[in-house]
Amino acid sequence: MKHRIVTAAQMKEIERAGNAHGLPYLQMMENAGLAAYTQLRARLPQGGALLIVCGKGNNGGDGLVMARAAAKDGWRVVVLLAEGDPKTPDAMTNYARLADLPVTKCRDAAALAAQPFDAVVDALYGTGFHGSLRPAGLAACTLMNRQRESGAFVLAVDLPSGINTDTGEAAEGAVRADLTVTFDSCKPLHTAPSSAPFCGEIVCADIGIRDEWHPAGLAQL
Ligand SMILES: NC(=O)C1=CN([C@@H]2O[C@H](COP(=O)(O)OP(=O)(O)OC[C@H]3O[C@@H](n4cnc5c(N)ncnc54)[C@H](O)[C@@H]3O)[C@@H](O)[C@H]2O)[C@@H](O)CC1
Ligand SMILES: [K+]
């Protein structure tokens, strides 16, 4: 794990620098989703039933990349669109890329409560989350936490949903993960005492943004 820690706003600057150096946002999302999937496959090489809970932003987009990779690898994939259709351009592109794959799409967390899964991917909220969980988000987080209590392995994409990236404040009902795969740099929540216990093991994955591209002042942190 890299020891550099950056805020949500600094991470956006780093991504902007990556894009300016010729690494498009869509490619960063692809790299993020595949890096997280590689970590999942390393822990559950046998595959199985996989629930991927997606929000409507770019964190959900990372989850949709994972859904594509996992379906091609033979997992039985269910995607829960917990907040409806993806809304950001890159997440919408990755949703369209699922069209010809055997991925089940669902919009109702309650419908999945009794279904057993070997693994759950939390791609509901990432660095964009702040405040408290609203009903749809809370229902999705409750489903993930119940699945974990029933034995499913929970991988959080970037951070467990329901946690504020910069303060580490955990909303009531936030996800508890076995593994958190974050990207490029760690964020304050990964080490804050209030939120670190929600993360489980933390892996910081390379998504192709070279250290020398980082805006001045961030590369040395
Ligand atoms: N920007 C980029 O280039 C990349 C972003 N990546 C991913 O994108 C994530 C950030 O994506 P976004 O900025 O789209 O945001 P998120 O996907 O983290 O959040 C989604 C939406 O949730 C909303 N939201 C905030 N608080 C809420 C609440 N309490 N209840 C309900 N909804 C709430 C936000 O308004 C936002 O629109 C990162 O965590 C990372 O996973 C990665 O794909 C790597 C590249
Ligand atoms: K997440």
Would you give an account of this structure?
The protein has a 7-stranded parallel β-sheet with strand order 3-2-1-4-5-6-7, with helices on both faces. Strand 4 (119-123), helix 5 (135-149) and strand 5 (153-157) form a beta-alpha-beta unit. It has one domain: Rossmann fold, CATH 3.40.50.10260. The chain has helices at 8-20, 25-43, 58-72, 89-96, 135-149, 196-199, and strands spanning 49-54, 76-81, 103-106, 119-123, 153-157, 179-183, 201-205. By secondary structure, it is of the alpha/beta class. Helix 2 packs across helix 3. The protein contains 6 helices and 7 strands. It binds ligand NAX and potassium ion (K).
Ends apart, CA distance between termini:
14 Å
**Average pLDDT figure:** 96
Oligomer category: single chain
CATH architecture: 3-Layer(aba) Sandwich
Spatial strand order of the main sheet? 3-2-1-4-5-6-7
- Percentage of residues in DSSP E strands: 15-25%
What is the strand and helix layout of this fold?
Layout (H helix, E strand, L loop, with lengths): L7 H13 L4 H19 L5 E6 L3 H15 L3 E6 L7 H8 L6 E4 L12 E5 L11 H15 L3 E5 L21 E5 L12 H4 L1 E5 L16
Parallel strand pairs: 1-2, 1-4, 2-3, 4-5, 5-6, 6-7
The site of potassium ion (K) has 11 residues, from β4 and β5.
